[in-house]
Amino acid sequence: MTLQDERTVHELRSPEEVLSSADMNGAWATRHSFARTMLRRAASHRWTVAKTRLDLDNLGRGTAVYTVNAEGFELNFIAFCQVLEESDRTDRVIANAWDITAALVDGELTMEREADLRRNVPFQEKGRTDPETIIMTRANRSARFFDYVSDCLSTGNQPDVDKIGPSPYLIRSTAFYGNGKFGLKELANIPAGHPLSVPYRSQMLAAWLLRELSMDMVEHVARAKALAAGTVAVSLDAAWAKYFGLGNATGLGMVPFLVNHPDYLDAWCRLREVPLAAGLAASYAPDHPDLGRIAGLLDRADRHLAEKSELKTVPFLSTELIRPQLHQLRSDLQTFMASSQESAPVLARLHDMAAGLSPEVRGIFASIVIELQTGFDDEAEALLTVAGAPPFNPAMGCRELRQLLEQNYGWARSYDFAAPERSSYYWYSSANSEEPRRAQRAELTGRAVEHCTDIVRRINALAADLEGFPAEASVAELLLAHPCHRFAAERIQQTRQYHYGELRDNLLDADFLPLSTQRFQLATYGMNNFSPQSTDWVRVTLFSGAPRVADVLNGIDDDDWLFPLAPEGGNA
User: HSE on the CB side for 4, CA within 13 Å?
Assistant: First the structure.
């Protein structure tokens, strides 16, 4: 079984399951999430990271530079740091200033290049970069945590887990721009042998270095406080250094991406579904060591959720409701392990049980099964470089187009757009932020431009006109008579090659929950601690539990940070 072998499709979960909002509500990070794969590559290829400069004043204002040698390629991460008044901090796209602005650049950081970055990077969207700058990012200090942690360290103490709570971070990022935006380097212009030629690897590296900066910065400020107070500061101990992640908040802007990129949606789903299918197909004897590992991961997941009891999770299932379901799986697994039964596909049975309990516990168990499937690691990296959709073929016959529609979009015909609630929303770009937004259709004005997120509505409209059109006619003839169907006809052709190319949802629907799609995307990136703040945006943490720079520098990445646990002494 391989990630791209079409012969394995019959063994995978169906698109109706995988691409439903309900299933996406239970998405969790896996060993193939982008953060994990980036650090696995860094450790295995012995990337080095040097703290070239940490030129900060007592408050943490100044410049920091980290130089990365990644398989012979020099990369430099430069950050410009200030301290905003709390009233000036906002994580919205329309912000004009941030505590930290930074860039990841390919090649040497010369004085001239740094001067140009200093003139542009602090202004983010209003600035422009040279084409060898790969990523531009920004972040704000956490008003709750940064000062608290620096105060603790300045007096020789480690933070209190109860004070930090369920979302451990010191700063929170608000954007990672790349791929040609604002003059940044196009992904297509990164050569194939470059370690950052894989999609999203540059963003993950920048995020990891931003997290490293947050801990260097808080320790620097702590030492300054200790010097002023006559105390002795300490550094974060190893457990805390791994536990702190990078905060992040994500809104509606991510959702149209998956609508516009069915090739990526298919690849991201395969990253999960193929290793899962391989794991579920295996038979195990009761004394097989893998079952002990799974039992241990179930226990760790339970402890992880216990520590997150205060996390706001609505409309996702609460940790208090998930934990008893995990206990049921653990008990059933223990019963099998203590038996004298013959080898059996016990993981498939447990997965079916989990699916009957909730999407969240099914997602947790799926991540545990995937954790043991180490044979897909190299192929998973290759899968992320997608070829893109084939060109539109107007010569296709209407009979074939109708067959493809019924075969791949029959599910869409169940939506009745005569009911107003099926078209309650429309999607558009904000004039202020140039970010995707949605609003009630009743508020739609004549000047607004609606995005093509209404896939289901367009497919149904095409289906209605196809029924009365000659089957032997070409798609070109159909479009001459009905030019409004150009998008839908191309979409049907575009997605025919993908098993998981289309969300099984109507984005215009009154009941559509953007959080479901966002959670799937964020879990694919490697984020956790999902805490919705409305129906449209969610707070998360990235790299909590991950190794730090010093670990990777020493070739250490235990690659075992699924369900990270707080340092000893926290909630249970």
Answer: 14
CB atoms within 10 A of CB 128: 15
> What whole-number distance in Å separates Cα of residue 42 and Cα of residue 47?
5
DSSP state of 510: T
CA dist list (Å): 276 to 281, 287, 362, 372, 507: 9, 21, 11, 10, 28
Q: What are phi and psi of 466, to 5 degrees?
A: -65, -35
Look up tokens 């802007």; give the residue.
Answer: 253
Mean pLDDT of 215-242: 97
What is residue 142's three-state secondary structure? Answer: coil
Q: Can you read off the two tokens belonging to residue 525?
A: 């990136």
Q: Give the integer Cα–Cα distance in Å for 90 and 38.
A: 29
Grouping H, G, I as helix, E, B as strand and the rest as coil, residue 201 is helix
Contact 33, 525 (CB under 8 A): yes
DSSP letter at 66 equals: E
Q: Express each pLDDT in 254-289 by its tens digit.
A: 899 999 999 999 999 999 999 999 999 999 999 999
DSSP state of 411: G
What is the length of the chain? 572
- Match 């990445």 to its residue by tokens: 557
Interatomic CA distance for residues 539 and 250, integer angstroms: 7
| Cα 462 to Cα 484: distance, rounded to the nearest angstrom | 9
Q: Is the peptide bond before 394 cis (omega within 30 degrees of 0)?
A: no
Handedness of CA 329, 332, 338, 342 (dihedral sign): negative
Contacts of 238 (CB under 8 A, 6+ apart): none
Q: How far apart are CA 136 and CA 129, in angstroms?
A: 9
Q: Are 3 and 274 in contact (CB under 8 A)?
A: yes
- Cβ of 115: how many Cβ atoms within 10 Å? 10
Could you tell me which residues are beta bridge partners of residue 436?
A: 429
**Residue 48 bridge partners (DSSP):** 69
DSSP code string of 146-183: HHHHHHHHHTT-PPPHHHHTTS-EEEEEEEEE-TTGGG
Tokens of 77: 């991460």
Rg (CA), the chain: 25
Task: Round to the nearest angstrom and report the end-to-end CA distance of the chain.
Answer: 40
SS3 333: helix
Distance separating alpha carbons of residues 111 and 44, to the nearest angstrom: 32
Q: Three-state DSSP class for 74?
A: strand
Tokens coding 320: 């208090």
Please state, in angstroms and rounded to a whole number, the distance separating the CA atoms of residues 319 and 156. 34
Whether the Cβ atoms of residue 365 and residue 346 lie closer than 8 Å to each other: no
Tens-place pLDDT, residues 370-383: 999 988 888 887 88
Residue 507 · residue 259 · CB < 8 Å:
yes
555's tokens: 């070739």
Largest CA distance in the chain: 88
d(CA 558, CA 243): 14
Confidence of residue 405 (pLDDT cuts 50, 70, 90): very high
Q: What element of type H or E holds 185? A: none
Q: What is the pTM of this model?
A: 0.94
